[in-house]
Structure formats: C-alpha cells, structure tokens
Design goal:
The complex is a heterodimer of chains A (312) and B (133). With 312 residues, chain A is of the alpha/beta class. Chain A is built from 10 helices and 8 strands. A 5-stranded parallel beta sheet of chain B has the order 2-1-3-4-5, with helices on both faces. Chain B is globular, with a radius of gyration of 13 Å. In chain B, 45% of the residues are buried. The chains are: A alpha/beta (312), B alpha/beta (133). The interface between A and B is medium-sized, with 30 and 27 residues.
Chain lengths: 312, 133
C-alpha cells in the first residue's frame, strides 16, 4: 500500500490518513494492521490519566518537550469525550500543546471516545500501532478525564502516570479500588496550591498500606504550568522503564495485553455470527415472546441458540 | 458513516474567541468532531494541525481585520503540502468587498455576522471535498 510506504518514510500526512482509516473502517484497518505488524513494538507507551482539569494536557506538553530535548520522536494521542446525544465532540487538548504543533519530531492526534467508557476510544490501540510503525520513540496517550473506574489505559500503556490534584477528597478516596490501583507513578499536579502536601501524604500513606506490591509507585510533586518537577517525573518514568526491562515485566505486560487483544478480536467476530443468527427470520423476537409468556425461560432459549450456532 | 472532523482555528492576534466557541459547540451538537486549537495561532500551526488531525474542514474565525493576509496564507500552505481534500471556510467581521478576493484565493465560503449555525452546518454537509462513509 502506497500510504504505508509514505508513512514509513516519515510523511505526517500519510500517517494521519492511516489513522483515519484505522479509526473508521474496520476492513481497511485490518488490511493496514496486517501489513504494518512487522514494524510495530518499538515505541515505549506512556499513559497519562486522571480526573478532568487535573492538568493532563499541560503535563503532556511539558513531558513531551523534555523528551524531544533528548532527541526523541514523540507521538501523542489525546482522547476527549464524545457526546452520547449528538455523537459530536470538542477535542481541545491541543490548546495546551500549541508549541508542539510545528515540531518535526512530534505528531499529535485527537480522538473522541465514540461511546467507549473505559477512558479511551475503541480504536486508540489501532492509532497507537500506526504511530509505532511510523517510528515514534515514545507515544503518549492522554485519556479522557476519568472518574473512578476507567482503566482501559492499563491494557495499552507500559508506564501509567496518574495525575492528581489537591482538594478532590479525603484519604478514603485514595484507598478505593479502581483508578488508584493502576498508577505506576503518581503525580500531584498544581503543587503550588494549598493542600498539595496533604494530598501527597495521603497518596503516600495509601501506597504504604499495600504490602503485596512488587514495586512501590513513587509520588512526584509537579506544577506543570510552571514546568516545576518535570525533571523528577522524567527520572521516574525512566526508572520505571528500566525496572520493567530488567525484571522482564515489560515483556510479560505486553504479552498479557496482546492476549487480551486477541480474545477481544475473536469475541468481536463471534459476536457478528451470533447477531446474524438471532436476527435472522425474526427468531429473537419470537423466542423473546415465549420468555414473556413463560413458555420458556432465558436459559433454555440460550441453549437452543447455542446449539443451532454450533451446528453451523 | 464516520463523524465529520472540523478544525476551528483562530489565527493572528485577536483575543476574542466567543464566536469560535459558539461555532465549535454548534458543530459538536450537529454530530461533528471539532478540534479547537485555541487563540493566536500562526497559519503554519493551523496547517500542521489540519494535516495531523486529517480534518475534512478547516474553519477559520477572525475579527482583527487581518483576514486578507491570514486566510489566503492558510490556503497557500495547505496547497504547498498538496492538501486538496479539505473544505476551507471562514467567518468573522469581513467587509463585503473583501469576500470575492478571499473566494478567489481559495476560501470556499465566508460567513459573516447574521449567518445562522444551521446554515453553516448545512453548507458543510453539502460541500465536503471527500466522502465520509
């Protein structure tokens, strides 16, 4: 495919066109991803997540500046929410990254979640693979502003930076399950604000409570808007990367994610078969009526459907 | 059908983006993905964003009076990169006598005060330069 050749040779427009294809057209996506598979797996992926307004975009901007100063090429995927009503969205993360737009070593792409609830869009991973093949050394994925349970980033990134800010709740929030469990590095952003020390202490105490952890995540105080603490964060990102590599965990982590992805791929194909089967000849409608009239129960109907699908 | 992607851009030095935000919001509500890049963008930044985001439409809003330079400059830079599948439209306080020149320079349509958001949305839907299936 000509576009792929152009992307591999570094042309940004080709890269952008390929992302559009893998974001919108599943058949096209499959063709492209089959072809670029051999070029992927070289980029290091950093996930930046945290609540809305925590400063994820500003932090991303500073981290990327620091990485490009070291001579790295960086791709950014910034995800913002899609409206459940209109299907439209305002993708505004670039506002905080204006200086990066013209840098030849940076590529920024905004994506809407398009109905996914895990903090990313369904095709974020596809876009990631394009940027990976295009030769970006680091890829930063900025999630939507998350609440307590949007943890899809864990299946996608190598290092997860959890961005928090002072004043969002007491220490009980920090021992809850979900989002607080996925951080490899915790950033307390807006550390110039009142309460930052307390938030840092609470997160530290929460982290010290867990005995079973193989690696205790560090807590870094940052004021991204003033570029304070960014060097410390970069050091911690490097440390985590080193830890994953030397312990062999990078390989295991990526392999486990790949397994999940394969299962998802199979599931999605199976789902198509199931839907086409139950939809044909109005079967679902008829069987549902039988459940309502108590002629059958749901599990009988399920077993009958499975049996028929299996016979195919 | 995928959503239409629009870059809403504010070039130059004017520091007033309420109009751009109204437009962005209306396009969002019409089901489009709107990339807003913020105030005081250079034409180079706008074009870089348009290319990386692979948008269908670039909508440029300007109130400072510098439209006769900034609008054509955006078109020129897009042409330099052989970007020929993007609909370029403009809006703002643009005197009637400037409009023919801007259209000649490659701006497909200029929307002046009084245009409804519905008119603009219809225009975009009917004039895209590529299919969105």
């Amino acid at each position: 495919m000509e576009l792929i050749q152009r992307m591999l040779s570094g042309e940004k427009r080709a890269c952008a066109k390929l992302i559009t294809a893998v974001e919108n057209n599943p058949e096209e996506a499959e063709k492209i991803l089959r072809e670029i598979h051999q070029y992927t797996g070289n980029a290091y992926v950093i996930g930046i997540t945290g609540p809305p307004g925590a400063g994820k975009s500003t932090l991303t901007d500073k981290v990327v500046k620091s990485l490009i100063n070291e001579g790295k090429k960086v791709g950014i995927i910034a995800v913002d929410p899609t409206s459940p009503y209109s299907g439209g969205s305002i993708l505004g993360d670039r506002i905080r990254m204006q200086d990066l737009a013209l840098n030849p070593n940076v590529f920024i792409r905004s994506m809407g979640t398009r109905g996914q609830l895990g903090g990313l869009s369904k095709y974020t991973k596809n876009a990631l693979k394009i940027l990976d093949a295009a030769g970006y050394d680091y890829i930063i994925i900025e999630t939507v502003g998350v609440g307590q349970s949007e943890v899809d980033i864990v299946k996608t990134a190598d290092t997860i930076v959890m961005v928090m800010v002072p004043g969002l709740g007491d220490d009980i929030q920090s021992i809850k399950a979900g989002i607080m469990e996925i951080g490899d590095i915790f950033v307390i952003n807006k550390s110039d604000l009142f309460g930052a020390d307390r938030t840092a202490t609470e997160v530290n105490m929460m982290l010290d409570l867990s005995m079973a952890m193989e690696r205790r995540p560090p807590v870094v105080k940052v004021t991204a808007s003033r570029s304070e603490g960014i060097d410390d964060l970069i050091t911690e990102i490097n440390n985590h990367q080193e830890y994953l590599k030397t312990s062999g965990k990078l390989h295991t982590r990526r392999k486990n994610n790949l397994k999940l992805e394969i299962v998802e791929l199979i599931e999605s194909e199976l789902r198509k078969i199931v839907i086409s089967h139950v939809d044909s000849e109005n079967k679902l409608e008829l069987e549902t009526d039988k459940i309502i009239t108590k002629e059958k129960n749901m599990y009988e109907v399920r077993d009958e459907f499975l049996k028929k699908i299996g016979e195919r | 059908m995928r959503p239409i992607r629009v870059l809403v851009a504010k070039p130059g030095l004017d520091g007033h983006d309420r109009g751009a935000k109204v437009i962005a919001r209306a396009l969002r509500d019409a089901g489009m993905e709107v990339i807003y890049t913020g105030l005081r963008q250079t034409p180079e930044q706008i074009v870089a964003a348009a290319v990386q985001e692979d948008v269908d439409v670039v909508g440029i809003s300007i109130l400072s009076g510098a439209h006769n330079y900034l609008f054509p400059r955006v078109v020129e830079l897009l042409n330099e990169q052989s970007v020929d599948d993007v609909l370029i439209i403009g809006g703002g306080v643009i005197p009637d006598e400037d409009i023919p020149l801007l259209k000649e320079a490659g701006i497909a349509e200029i929307f002046t005060p009084g245009t409804t958001t519905t008119q603009m949305i219809e225009y975009i839907k009917n004039n895209l330069k590529r299919t969105i299936d």
